[in-house]
Amino acid sequence: MKLKIGCIPGDGIGPEIVKQAKAVLEKVAQVYGHEISYRHILLGGASIDVHGIPLTDEAIAEARAADAVLMGSIGGDTTKSPWYQLPPDRRPEAGLLQIRKALNLFANLRPAVLYPELADACPLRSEIRRDGFDLLIMRELTGGLYFGERKTVTENGVRRAVDTLTYSEEEIRRIAVKGFEIARKRRRKVTSVDKANVLDSSRLWRCVVEEVAKDYPDVALEHMLVDNCAMQIVRDPAQFDVILTENMFGDILSDEASMVTGSIGMLASASLNDTKFGLYEPSHGSAPDIAGKDIANPIATILSASMMLRYSFDLDQEADAIDRAVKAALEEGWRTADIMADGCRQTGCEQMGRIITKHIGGSMK
Ligand code: NAD
User: Fold this and answer.
1) 261 pLDDT exceeds 50?
2) How far apart are CA 344 and CA 250, in angstroms?
3) Which of 63, 116, 248, 310 is the most exposed place for a label (fewest CB within 10 A)?
4) C-alpha of residue 286 to centroid of ligand 1, in Å
5) What is the pLDDT, as a whole number, of residue 362?
6) Ligand 1 center from residue 165 Cα (angstroms)
7) Given this model, what pLDDT does residue 263 score?
């Protein structure tokens, strides 16, 4: 297969971690007989340094011309970098919001995986975390409370603020379809999270999700209220496969779920539109405090590349090979500084990439 990948190294540790993810992808291409071409795209601080703005029209066109985009992370030290002397709409993060909007990325996927090898990083007790867990939060990203009408008015000397939560059935249907499709590539269970005992938008959410579920009889569907879901994530995270939810609930639950894994350098993410296109990036930021020191953990970016193969190219076998290679490196005791534990072998960004790359060929045997 020919894979046209847009590549945004970005700022801080971005170029270091993307380099390792590309090395892993190259090895996958070699072992499984694919051809990858990259389009280099400037975003964030790297674009400001060259063009004076965080995202150009040319960069958007390059991203649109690719089948999928792999990104490192963008942004700098917000207290020291000259990028943050610019007006807010010219700062690095504005470029990220603009590209998400331009590419109509409405579905955000945040897996939260606890590997048994990293169990000590998990703040949950051993009888709760058991043998680890692997859940995925699918959050609607372009509707709901964050995009509804809002205003603050003063009436009779009293200030009143209003935010509006609206969802159309089309907005709910398209994310529900993504949720069920993705569940089919996993353990075939969707937990749809809402507040249907109170909110009309949640009642419509539940109704449309049930309509969509009829097309996926092989996927189990359950509904859960958001307050209960927040408790269940810390009570028994292994019960979940895909958690499907609206924008604000997903914002809160995905941060909660990533905290219970305990390792920021391990968390991948993806944002998808209604085609096969997606933007794949680690959940963490550009870590300017450790940039250029070869100590960053490249695993979140490598796992993002695995998600790209699975969800944009339907190359599940190849994605499985990457996931197995990461696990094999952890089983051998290799750790970057952020996940280092007693009795393990500490390594840097580059060497961690090399070790994982080496295991790609091994997994074919
Ligand atoms: P951060 O995620 O960059 O760093 C938080 C802490 O985690 C730091 O101590 C950092 O060293 C560590 N860390 C992060 N990733 C790591 C990795 N792969 N390996 C080892 N350690 C890692 O968050 P921050 O410090 O709040 O933000 C730094 C910059 O990143 C800011 O400019 C922020 O706006 C930007 N940011 C960008 C994105 C993105 O590109 N999507 C997301 C979040 C933050």
Assistant:
1) yes
2) 35
3) 116
4) 4
5) 57
6) 30
7) 87
pTM for the whole structure:
0.94
Protein residue with least CA distance to atom 38, ligand 1: 285
> How far apart (Å, rounded) are the C-alpha atoms in residues 354 and 330?
13
Q: Is the predicted pLDDT of residue 241 greater than 70, yes or no?
A: yes
Q: What average pLDDT is seen over the chain?
A: 96
In angstroms, the CA 82 to CA 47 distance is 13
179-208 pLDDT, tens digit per residue, is 999 999 999 999 999 999 999 999 999 999
Amino acid identity, residue 147?
F
Spot the catalytic one: 22, 67, 251, 311: 251
Beta bridge partners of 334: 345
Provide the b/e sequence for 269-284 (b: ≥16 CB within 10 Å): bbbbbeeebbbbbbbb
**What order of strands is seen across the sheet that includes strand 35-40?**
35-40, 2-10, 68-73, 278-282, 268-272, 107-114, 133-140, 242-245, 189-194, 220-225
Average pLDDT over residues 86-98: 94
Residues framing ligand 1 (Cβ under 6 A): 13, 73-76, 78, 93, 96, 264-265, 281, 284-290, 296-297, 300, 338
Q: Closest residue (by CA) to atom 20 of ligand 1?
A: 296
> Which runs of consecutive H residues, i.e. helices, occur in the chain?
14-32, 45-51, 57-65, 92-102, 126-129, 169-184, 200-213, 226-235, 247-261, 299-311, 316-331, 349-362
Structure tokens at 50: 């060259």
Please report, in angstroms and rounded to a whole number, the separation of the first and last CA atoms in the chain. 22
Check if the beta carbon of residue 344 is closer than 8 Å to that of residue 121.
Answer: no
Q: Whose CA is nearest to atom 16 of ligand 1?
A: 265
What dihedral do alpha carbons 272, 276, 277, 283 form, nearest 10°? 40
pLDDT greater than 80 at residue 40: yes
Question: Hey, what's the torsion of the CAs at 235, 182, 67, 275, to 10 degrees?
Answer: -120
Q: How many distinct helices (H) and strands (E) make up the chain?
A: 12, 14
Whether residue 69 contacts residue 63, with contact meaning beta carbons closer than 8 Å, is answered with yes
pLDDT at 364: 41
In whole angstroms, give the CA distance from residue 202 to residue 208.
10
Please name which of 269, 272, 273 lies closest in space to residue 261, comparing C-alpha atoms. Answer: 269
